[in-house]
Write a structure and sequence with these properties.
alpha/beta, 16% strand, six-stranded parallel beta sheet, Rossmann fold, single chain, nine-stranded mixed beta sheet, Dihydrodipicolinate Reductase, domain 2, 3 domains, 15 helices
Length: 458
């Protein structure tokens, strides 16, 4: 099939050299991207469509007036079920070949690859003037996030990140309640997740396995440091116990799906779920960048995220709201059970809690429930929208920007990445967002930007 071929070393270096020589090109040079009128079909290409991308590319295809016309994945077997769902879509293994070959035949690009390749793929699509939807988190490093958000502004395209929508009725109602003073000034918030559901807190396994011909391991590694391919965890390894204990056991070491716990490829439980939860918290509490971050965690290894962690963010006062302390918990940890919670009722496995001077909101309802029933909801002042996929399509057609566009998603992504750096370094970190550096810890600054392996650059 067209584009489905291995790239030899000479061809790879030629492509990579072109990538390395490229620079961010303003939208005025590229020509302003074409918004697709309602009478025309939006032609979408999907990159990384074997894992989470399998369901998400289908969600995009169900939006009125959209068509999936090209698909790209480094693993023929993992992507096969998606290929079967879209038999007419042109198939590729290398996203660079796909973008070069498709040219003006596509309007938008979806990226559902592991975290470490979000930036290089999304940036390549932006430089082609394509509308881009990227799986959360937007990037694996803060430096990548800043580069990508700037490039999206310059390209003037429609962007979206797949964080849990903050424009649902429940999310909008939460904002309206907090802004209405339902619980007074909020000075403390708690967010917790039942993740990880994949191995974390492990060491790199020894040895290597034969790379299947159906998998391009070099391209899967992408800009990360090269390492041997290992197929599955061996019997007796502690990571295998985590896999067997999970609800969806996957014995793979790196691919498929288990990339999330490795710092070179993923962003751990905080990176995976933080953008979902923070999308509501940051909107309701009008948060931007924290001024300091601290963390405590189970044993942290150089290569992997810990089994459990607690991260604390401190935000300054903003738009009439007082300073806020935000706490994140994962690995089964939760905040203390509030006295306001009814007897016999426990905190959910994942959730958000807002602590105000006059009460507490758990997710989007005041506790206890009797207090919620006596509260008169304020008028609906926020627009309820169509959710992740519909908002992206609406923006492609020239409507208002998606609610989790790259500018907003960049703020959420930076927060989770700051938390990960605090986990890796320990102690309190003071963050200067304007200069993009920590003012009190040089070691922490080394994690702001990653070194790409030879042949890869932004």
């Amino acid at each position: 099939m067209k584009g489905r071929r291995q790239v030899n070393r000479r061809g790879f270096m030629k492509i990579a050299g072109g990538v390395a020589a490229a620079s961010i090109v303003p939208g005025t040079v590229l020509g302003r991207p074409r918004h697709v009128p309602p009478s025309e079909t939006i032609q979408v290409a999907g990159i990384g469509i074997g894992g989470v991308g399998h369901g998400q590319i289908q969600s995009i295809s169900k939006q009125p007036g959209t068509k999936i016309v090209a698909l790209c994945d480094v693993d023929d077997v993992y992507a096969n079920r998606t290929y079967k769902n879209f038999p007419e879509a042109r198939q590729y293994r290398d996203y660079r070949e796909m973008l070069a070959a498709e040219g003006n035949k596509i309007d938008g690009v979806y990226c559902g690859t592991p975290d470490h390749t979000h930036a290089v793929i999304s940036l390549a699509a932006l430089r082609k003037g394509k509308h881009v939807c990227c799986a959360k988190p937007l990037t694996r490093t803060i430096h990548e996030e800043r580069i990508l958000t700037r490039a999206a502004r310059e390209a003037s395209v429609a962007t979206q990140v797949t964080a849990s929508s903050n424009t649902t009725d429940a999310a909008c109602r939460l904002c309206e309640m907090i802004w209405d003073g339902a619980i007074g000034d909020v000075r403390e918030a708690h967010v917790w997740s039942n993740r990880p559901l994949w191995p974390q807190g492990m060491l790199r396994p020894p040895g290597q396995d034969r790379i299947p011909k159906t998998l391009d391991w070099d391209l899967w590694i992408g800009p990360a440091p090269m390492r041997p391919f290992v197929s599955q965890w061996r019997d007796g390894d502690l990571a295998l116990r985590q896999v067997k204990a999970s609800k969806r056991p996957r014995p793979a070491v790196y691919h498929p799906w288990n990339f999330r716990g490795w710092w070179d490829f993923g962003t751990g439980a905080l990176g995976d779920m933080g953008c979902h939860h923070f999308n509501h918290v940051f909107k309701a509490l009008k948060l931007r960048y924290p001024v300091s971050i601290s963390a405590t965690a189970s044993k942290v290894f150089d290569e992997t995220a810990p089994l459990a962690s607690i991260v604390t963010y401190n935000f300054p006062s903003r738009e009439g709201m007082p300073p806020l302390r935000l706490h994140w918990y994962d690995g089964g940890l939760k905040p203390p059970r509030p006295a306001e919670l009814e007897s016999g009722r426990e905190l959910p496995t994942s959730g958000n809690m807002y602590v105000g001077d006059k009460g507490i909101i758990l997710d989007s309802r005041i506790i206890p429930e009797s207090k919620m029933r006596s509260y008169k909801l304020p008028p609906k002042t926020l627009k309820r929208r169509t959710g992740t996929w519909g908002e992206w399509v609406e923006a492609i057609r020239g409507g208002e920007p998606a609610s989790c566009n790259f500018d907003w998603a960049g703020i959420l992504t930076e927060a989770v990445l700051l938390g990960n750096i605090a986990i890796r370094t320990g102690g309190k970190l003071d963050w200067d967002a304007e200069s993009m550096r920590f003012t009190n810890n040089d070691e922490a600054n080394e994690y702001v930007k990653a070194l790409y392996r030879s042949g890869w650059t932004l």
